[in-house]
Design a protein that fits this description.
Blueprint: E1 2-3, E2 12-13, H1 21-29, H2 34-40, H3 46-64
Antiparallel strand pairs: 1-2
Amino acid sequence: MEQDPLRLSGAWVFRNTRIPVAALFENLEDGLCLAEFVELFPGVTLEQARLVLEHAARSTAAALA
């Protein structure tokens, strides 16, 4: 993930893309699986999507501890 104030108003995006990380969560909420997400967004790898979810899980666990 990366964040650049000059790209997409500073939203977190997948590295070397203009695909917002929020798009992953929005699509998962809509019922898509990770494989379907990376098919829709070819700039994102399955590994990148998994890493974002792992990061979110760790951050949530730390916040709840």
